[in-house]
């Protein structure tokens, strides 16, 4: 099924807001086997909107509109849709009651403009939005469906997940158009998609004839591989997945496609280990990535954001002479930070990160993008040096992902040591 | 001048890549007084591209195309442009020499596909790309200009800044045309857009007749207000901006619309202050938000990610009995964390954050979403309690934004104290 996304809002065009909604929808719809054929961003202008909706509906079976549903005057999507579909606004008492209680729970006064968000086109099916005051609107039309949703990402995401996707799936099922379909995925790190593709080219060719498709989803530093089977082929998916895991074993980080953070959290919880961090250039970003998932307190004890050299020495015990001799961005300092974090937080494992994120601070020997990451466990300390690029934001993201991968690797090799009867990690503390 | 942005790439449509280029271009072009009227994202498909270029050129004077210029088979933009403009590829020796030296400097082999990136349309002006191997291509056409650039953000940004914008400005100047559009924005926190709108409704009505438009751009926890003037009205924009700042003064956080992090970084650098953090539930996210901007080392010393209670006591000096008596999520603990961070890092200011991010850990008295944030400066410690919602991700984001706002507020009142001749912050340390 072809989908077109229409994002409405001047803030997107003048670059005040990055359009993350389009990417979120693209990813989510792809996982349903639906295909986003085009994304168009237009201003909150009546004539432009009317023409863009007409064009999108002429091309796509499902048109998803976001934005322009706020209570203020610049938000005109609802009115434009009424004109377009030849319908008018009617007050929806259920929605109004929900809006009033939404404000009451927050101890805020309900204004008339807020109540008026319950004025909704008569011709639409209202999709609940428990996270905000603008409802989703589902319009059945000849040849397809058009849905209007608020532009606030978490509100849109909720309406998509709870309203649009299940409802659209029912429509397709009712028309006998929803084939049995299944996915498996795995996460790789350490090489690019073209290298991976070469290694499994022959497998892929064989599967294609059976109805199993392969997709490479690269992010900075990792490639997720997704296998998709339809109909009969679903029964062969597990065998295909096992084949690719075995063929690519040097690069596979997680076999079920979970993120590296999920995998390390699962391992640490299972083994009953604890983890601590010492972050210089990332300023706390690794810790933030770990606590983004619920239940992090079961294994994450915390750490030290040692942005200054004094913090490195006083809170982590890095000898000041090592900093002056080797530089704050160096292997000895990264190792000392990891060991310092382990001991200061009384953890089984400690991580140290020190690098030059840029754009300033680079030198010939240590250009911008140089990052040392160390992970210290009961069986010693491992340290890696990375040379990322010139972009600060990308360097910080790559550093956090590389650190998570190193932690997972060190943890896994400790598990093996433990399970083979050698000195266990917990005993050694 | 009307601009249209055409982003080419399957990776954008399936959500593998967020289209940050469109936002960057929108912001940069607006600052020139040029107006991005539409952004369209399409796949690497010949027919779709031809039709989209034709449509864009029929609407906009400047068409900016990004993506599809890589060396691999799926990158077809160059060929499509040749067909579209009826021209053919010729080898550019200067570009080829640059590509060869680009690979040599990196110690990598130059493949034929890389050399072939020097094959460029005869009809275009080549725009240099010193950061990569795909050149920019400038096509003069009837009624305007179309430019094709690589999709890699920093390469596109360089070509835009050094090639497209200066060249386009010369074209417009040669035709005696100057920008007739300007913006002002301000950032508010503490109330919703509808409340803000009601307070300035009468102003807005008056401005509209003069050609000044108002837009509300809400994010979780804040609302950015943007004023836009065209033509004659540009001269009245500053007065309108001052009016809205004064009318909404209780909620205005930054008068020039910069982010709270930018504003606090500027203030701290200007005053020569230092800042440290103690983060529990956010796990390092506040520090990461501060170091996301270059130059953070001028004021940010670091902090302690005190996720565990032991870390709160041992590294920050929070009395363990306060934790058992009041709970780890409490005002006394937040205050002690802020003061502990200040003293452990030898900073002028310290921040303490402790809360229940969810989904577990809430109680009747302290439900999920309860967060205490304290900021300690030379003139004492201020503490706030917040009651956010049920969503962990949102709670963490709201906490970081609220903390930045509190820090900025405490910093500003300290500036006032200093400037009024009372005991200065720096002297007091």
What descriptors fit this protein?
Maf protein, 429 residues, Alpha-Beta Plaits, 3 domains, alpha/beta, disordered C terminus, homodimer, 5-stranded mixed sheet, Molybdenum Cofactor Biosythetic Enzyme, Chain A
Mean pLDDT of chain A: 91
> Strand sequence of the main sheet of chain A, in spatial order?
2-1-3-8-7-6
Q: How many strands appear in the DSSP assignment of chain A?
A: 17
CATH second-level architecture of the largest domain in chain A: 3-Layer(aba) Sandwich
What is the CATH third-level topology name of the largest domain in chain A?
Molybdenum Cofactor Biosythetic Enzyme, Chain A
- Beta percentage of chain A is 15-25%
Largest sheet features of chain A: 6 strands, mixed
Tally of individual helices of chain A: 16
Uncertain segments of chain A of ≥5 residues (pLDDT<50)? 422-429
Share in helix of chain A: 40-55%
> Which value, in Å, is the CA radius of gyration of chain A?
26 Å
Structural class of chain A: alpha/beta
Tell me which protein chains meet in the greatest interface and how many residues each side has.
Answer: A-B, 89 and 93 residues
Overall tally of domains of chain A: 3
